[in-house]
Amino acid sequence: MKLLSLICCICVYASAAFGVQKKSISLAPKYQKAALRSKLSEHPYWKKILYYQYIQTPFEGSIIDTSDFFLSAKGKKSAEAELQASIAAIFTAPKASMNDHHGQCKYPLRLHFIKQHLLIPDQELPKVNCYKLERFMRNYDFTSMSLVFTSFNADHTDTLLGDILFRLHKREDHQSWGPGLTDIALSFEAAQYPNQNIINDMKKGFFGGLDGKFNLKSYYQKIQEYPKYKYRNLWQYSLNLSSQQIKTLLLTVWEMGENTSNYYYLTENSSFMLTYILETARPDLQLISKLNYSATPADIVQIFHQAPGLITGFSFTPSNASRYQERLTRLEPEQRPLVASVIENPSNEKMSPLLKTLNRKTKGDVIDTALEWIDLNEHNVELKKHINYHEARQKLIATRAKIHRPSRPLNYTPLNQKPDRANPKSMYGLGFISNKINTFTKLNWRPAQSDLLGNATGLPKGTAISILDTEIRYDNQTKKAELERLDLIALTNLRSFSLDDRQVAYLLRAGARERFWREGDELYTEIAGALGIAHWLSAAKIRLWGLAGMQANMELETKSHGDFLTTFDAGILYRPEPKLRVILRGEWAQSIRSSRHLSQQRLYMGKDLMPLTEVRIGAVADASLGNSGEISLLRYF
Length: 637
What we know:
It is a single chain. The protein is α+β, with helices and mostly antiparallel strands. It is built from 16 helices and 22 strands. The protein has helices spanning 2-37, 44-49, 79-91, 103-106, 108-118, 131-139, 198-207, 219-224, 243-256, 270-281, 297-306, 320-330, 337-344, 348-355, 360-377, 383-401, and strands at 52-53, 61-62, 144-150, 163-169, 184-190, 210-218, 234-239, 261-263, 311-317, 427-435, 439-446, 448-449, 463-475, 480-493, 505-517, 520-537, 542-555, 563-577, 580-591, 597-610, 613-622, 626-636. The strands form three sheets. The chain has a twelve-stranded antiparallel barrel. A seven-stranded antiparallel beta sheet has the order 8-6-5-4-3-7-9. A two-stranded antiparallel sheet has the order 1-2. Strand 13 and strand 14 (480-493) form a beta hairpin. Helix 13 (337-344) packs across helix 15. The longest helix is centred in the first third of the chain and has 36 residues, at 2-37. The termini are far apart.
């Protein structure tokens, strides 16, 4: 009798459950029709969580490239088809073994959007247990979030433009840097593949072929991954987001999962994607619409600053190089050579005679500076010396402990390097050129980054990165316009040479430009590279350099006159103040195959007339063209 009663109960329960599931499934068409009538698929937020771009144009569609992200075969191009498929998915009867793959579990943002706009009661939806989603949200329960900008480093292609990530905090004291052991870094990264090289990376980064996806990992672990981390300062900006808005942002990352989108250096990169998902948490911001032609990390920092109330404060953590430089500048000039001496003689008995004339405070400063030098340089040398530095560090620490004075805190913040203070990276300009024979009108356009003569506030000193830098000249006599120069990429790194890190200055350039020989002018494609030495005279505010290299040319019109040239580039850059710059630069090239040669010297002055507006005045001496003068007005946007 008891067994019969139990069987009856099970049957009744199963029948009721089946009835609910059947009812849920039968309700899907009702809400699909309601969505169609209300044109819900045209809602901006629906297209936002599908990663749609180029809205209301023939190119409208999602930037997500993997098909697993979409429930409909037409979902990449049809927001309506994806909405209909999503409604069907959330009403699908769950299977116990497949709960975590149910539509409600895989797409919680879509579920919330559909329920909210179609007014679907909870009791009409099938009950689904989303264990993985619940565990994800439980593990990633954060109280606040910051934007972290890692400064430029011209020694690696993936750090040329700097980088950004979101730092998610589990504590309220996020202004304090600390070790970040409980914090999580959210980034968007290009996938790494075996046998990668700089040429393929640049080709794929500019023209497509790299896959990018979101990544969540320990903040402390993440910042250790940066190549040459010791040279990269970190700027942290606290963001005005509630806990619920952070959860919404994380749900966007959850829905993306392991799916990927094409990763481009200038557009659909980490800066763009992190800004994009921030808008899913705060749709009122409308940050993406403020981007021009590119989305560099520095652009994003500036756009975040323009949003009222979004940034509530900032913090700075110095790189190893900055820490060493700050401690070194605190020493008197005559005390600085002692740093190298104590590194070579770290034991107390050898060090004491070197420091015997110094008071305790200065002794501590010298040893602290030596320890910073070791932190900066130990990974730049071969393994044998690395072991010696390890021993030297232990001896220096032991000697330092006997001084019984705490280390002086590092408190310098280089506000002139703060990325939000830099000019926007896009530029256009209008200029006029005159020589003894003719006059020209010059048009300039550059969608990203900077050159040596620009205002360097907020940018790496001595480094210029120009992308798609274009100059067109219009001959006022013949009424013809010609391409004068198109640099796909031009990179100049004039970091001061030192025996400590053995960093050389270099120049890399690829593009097309018009070359003027004595026989006439020709438009060439070119690839150029040069190495040399640069030095920064900080007291005089002058940077000097000399670079020797090679250049490969190919004449464009006939595809003939391919040539190799030896080159030499030397110059002086004088910056008496941030708003005024003067550059004297000479370039010489000699063909290996013929007597052809180039010789050009330029003197330019750049002056900021007002915010975002610059005037440049220059004189050029060219062995083939003679002398000319020019004036240009540039506008940054």
